[in-house]
Design a protein that fits this description.
Length: 835
């Protein structure tokens, strides 16, 4: 080399050339996507938003790798520090140049890459004040290196400083964009001077620290460091001997890196999340997501270091001081798995404690309480179990992010280690890309039923491939069976959560088969089996395949393959049929035999609505008594969109044609919930000779809608939807209920006790609306002969979900009454017959 400066630059390049290729790849892929997006999706706002998310993620990744290139440090175990390379102190170069060269190189690279993003990717002015952001990037680059060198002996202190510095940089970068901060000191010009001054100060601090280290005055001799060690020595420590080498190894793993996740979670919650949720309280649901995401995001980031033999080392080779320890390969793995599990548990306990404080003292809980109230109404009996399972599954997912990469982290191969991260990033980008280009045109071209079939097949093939590979790997792996039991318990928890929460997550019949397949794919199974062999190779320089007699595991995996195939076929979809009603198909579920047939009409606003799964707690019970039919209206669930206008008469005509072509002869007992009540009234008015009875479950009355419109208006409803709503109610009002048929109307006045967490405003609204709702039901029934009014206080609006037994009993009594041809009961108001 011509000079020491050239040698230093060449060393930086040699160290970070792979990372620099990743940076260029992120920039190049984003530039290519941006060029395609401009020409193809410029008019699609949703697609452009997704592309912006993709670009944002890739930009963050590129700058993270760029900072990694200039992570100009070197570990020195003898002095218990990780700072500026001591071997460079012998070069005939002034300390100012030793410090300035990597700093200037880092700033130059950061600004060059940032310019590439501005000119090639963010070409539609998505970034305002790009010059200001460039200044912040440059200042943080200098601060980053100065912190690395100044706090070389303080590993945790350095992490805290870097985290706080990154959060502070983001906060400072946002200052010129905040409209409520109009101070002259926070103008862009003043802030540039302040930030530039801070960067110069950081340079001199780093220069001073490196100069002291070059003279031999490294920080271990500083009074702060000595005081820190005295405090540590004074605290209670472990004095007993370890019971086994594996116990000592676990303690080593915990002291080395296991504590990082809970400590970092505590720091992020205290110094970042707490201030953000304190000052920005407009969206408590978003704040809740931020809080819950903390251990997940940190688990993914910390896991990239945790899976290496030594967290703090860039070398993936197995260290000699670990290789000579009297612990087996499995004991070393078990220590890492256990340390990760303990760290995850502590982290989530911190999150739960923070959530309790946040909800108690400064969260605006109105929206959260409203969602929670709805959640308890949808799952009146299993809400607590679902909540516990969800918490356990989040903890299991965080643990997976920490340890899933052990097989390549312990392999000693950099290609596997970095390649897996690139593949994960590519998968995320691909998912966001598909979501971005997916629009209504594709929805029309690929029906929902066909899409679900494709997804089911892909997931089933993935599960089968995973289990076949696992069967082969576990056949020749010395991984103990109890770990397979742990995998089974975690997977079973995910599957149970999928089964219990299906109606909340998806709106397709037997959607739990998709979620169960995802649960079978979620927890790693092949990679844990590969880990022992990879570790033995890294430790001893050779593979050590040991043929095991894991017949039980072998058979279990192939049985699970059969289950996956059955779930992929989705046998439940053969229970329903698609009926052509004049150019578009409606999905119908016909169960049972007998007459009269019970026809279910779902609720929800306008021509849209809930899918036929709303009746899954009621229809199977009644199908043992008579024929039952549930269906998706056009454009709902898996039914194809229908022609306009989607008023009540059009919906009734399509239902009538679907019943004829579906082989369900009259007479019909019509059951309508909410907005489905007016729809079945129109059907009965159009086809009175085919209607044998009506059951209205908390139906929406036109008089109540008029009262609500006068009181609050309909600003939250689109004009087109409001026109359809009004048209449907006019048609229902004009439809006469057939004479001599039984009519039962159930009014939901529950819950009997309003939970304490419901906001006072919502409680007052309920107290005001309930009597009016009941009044209009009573007034309408007063003009209907042979009617019965049932009032229940045990359920809210979703009666068929909260009290399915009541609904089944009412319909069964009506069917038996019609079959026996008894005279309908006189007009009366009764109590809940199910109580």
């Amino acid at each position: 080399m011509g000079s020491p400066i050239t040698s230093l630059l060449w060393e930086i390049w040699q160290k970070g050339r792979r990372s620099f290729l990743i940076v260029l790849s992120c920039l190049g892929v984003s530039a290519l996507l941006n060029a395609v997006a401009i020409g193809t999706f410029h008019a699609h706002a949703g697609a452009m938003e997704f592309f912006s998310n993709v670009f944002g993620i890739l930009m963050v990744v590129s700058f993270l790798f760029l900072m990694g290139i200039f992570n100009y440090t070197e570990a020195n175990p003898a002095r218990a520090w990780n700072g500026f390379p001591y071997r460079l102190f012998i070069l005939p170069v002034p300390t100012s140049q030793l410090v300035a060269l990597p700093m200037i190189s880092c700033v130059f690279a950061v600004e060059l890459v940032y310019l590439g993003w501005i000119k090639l990717v963010w070409t539609r002015q998505q970034i305002e004040r790009p010059e200001w952001i460039a200044v912040v990037f440059a200042a943080y680059a200098i601060f980053y290196l100065s912190t690395l060198w100044t706090l070389a002996p303080f590993r945790i202190g350095r992490l805290i400083a870097l985290g706080l510095g990154g959060a502070s940089s983001v906060a400072v970068a946002c200052l010129p964009y905040l409209p409520f901060l109009n101070s002259v000191w926070l103008s862009e010009q003043r802030l540039i001077l302040i930030v530039a001054g801070g960067a110069i100060g950081a340079y001199f601090i780093g220069w001073t620290a490196v100069a002291r280290q070059r003279r031999g005055c490294y920080l271990r001799r500083l009074g702060v460091k000595e005081l820190f060690f005295k405090i540590i020595d004074a605290t209670p420590g472990r004095t007993k001997d370890f019971r086994s080498p594996s116990g000592a190894q676990f303690w080593f793993e915990w002291r080395q890196s296991g504590w990082l996740l809970p400590v970092c979670s505590f720091i992020v919650l205290l110094f970042i999340v707490a201030p953000v949720t304190w000052f920005a309280r407009n969206d408590p649901v978003l704040d809740l997501v931020r809080i819950v995401a903390v251990p997940v995001i940190l688990g993914f980031a910390i896991g990239k270091g945790f899976i290496k033999p030594v967290f703090w080392s860039a070398n993936l080779a197995f260290p000699t001081f670990l290789g000579v320890r009297p612990v087996s390969t499995y004991e070393f793995m078990a220590a890492k798995l256990k340390a990760a599990a303990v760290g995850v548990i502590y982290s989530w306990l911190l999150v739960f404690a923070f959530l309790a404080l946040w909800l108690k003292f400064w969260a605006k809980t109105m929206d959260i309480n409203r969602y929670f109230f709805t959640f308890r109404q949808v799952y009146p009996h299993s809400w607590l179990l679902i909540t516990v399972l969800l918490a356990l599954c989040l903890m299991a997912f965080t643990w997976k992010l920490m340890v899933a990469g052990l097989w390549h982290g312990l392999s000693g191969r950099q290609l596997l280690y970095y390649g897996s991260f690139v593949l994960q990033l590519a998968f995320l980008v691909l998912a966001l890309l598909i979501a971005g280009i997916w629009d209504e045109t594709i929805n029309v071209a690929i029906s929902a039923d066909r899409l679900i079939t494709i997804v089911s097949a892909v997931l089933a093939l993935g599960v089968v491939g995973k289990f076949v590979m696992a069967a082969v790997v576990w056949r020749v792996s010395d991984y103990p069976r109890r770990n397979f039991i742990v995998w089974g318990a975690l997977t079973a928890s995910l599957a149970l959560l999928a089964i219990l929460s299906t109606s909340l997550v998806m709106n397709t019949y037997r959607a739990e088969h998709l979620l169960i397949l995802l649960a079978l794919l979620a927890m790693p199974l092949v990679r844990p089996g590969l880990t022992p062999a990879m570790l033995v190779r890294n430790r001893n320089g050779r593979f050590n395949w040991i043929r095991q007699n894991n017949k039980a595991i072998f058979v279990s995996l192939f049985l699970l393959c059969g289950i996956a195939i059955v779930l992929g076929l989705d046998l439940g979809r053969f229970n329903f049929k698609f009926v052509d009603v004049g150019g578009h198909d409606l999905r119908m579920l016909v169960m049972g035999r007998g007459s009269p047939a019970v026809v279910f009409e779902t609720g929800a606003r306008g021509s849209g609505g809930a899918p036929l799964e709303d009746w899954e707690k009621v229809q199977p019970e009644l199908s043992c008594l008579t024929a039952t039919v549930s269906y998706d209206r056009a454009g709902v669930g898996l039914s194809a969109p229908g022609p306009a206008p989607r008023d009540a008469r059009q919906i009734a005509q399509e239902l009538h044609l679907a019943l004829q072509r579906g082989g369900v002869p009259p007479p019909y007992v019509l059951v309508g919930h909410s907005f489905g009540g007016p729809f079945i009234r129109v059907f009965a008015g159009m086809y009175p000779g085919e209607t044998a009875g009506m059951v209205l479950l908390d139906p929406t009355q036109e008089e109540f809608i008029e009262w609500e419109d006068k009181r609050k208006g309909h600003a939250d409803i689109k004009d087109s939807d409001w026109a359809l709503i009004q048209a449907g109610f006019r048609e229902a009002h004009a439809s006469a209920v057939p004479t001599n048929i039984p009519v039962v109307l159930v009014t939901a006045m529950g819950p009997r006790v309003i939970p304490a967490f419901v906001p006072e405003k919502d409680k007052a609204e309920l107290e005001l609306v309930r009597p009016v709702w009941l009044k209009y039901h009573s007034q309408w029934l007063a003009s209907i002969p042979h009617s019965q009014h049932i009032v229940t206080k045990e359920s809210g609006h979703g009666i068929m979900l909260a009290e399915p037994d009541l609904v089944v009993k009412i319909i069964r009594q009506m069917v038996e009454q019609i079959r026996n041809s008894t005279s309908p009961s006189p007009n009366q108001t009764g109590s809940n017959p199910g109580k």
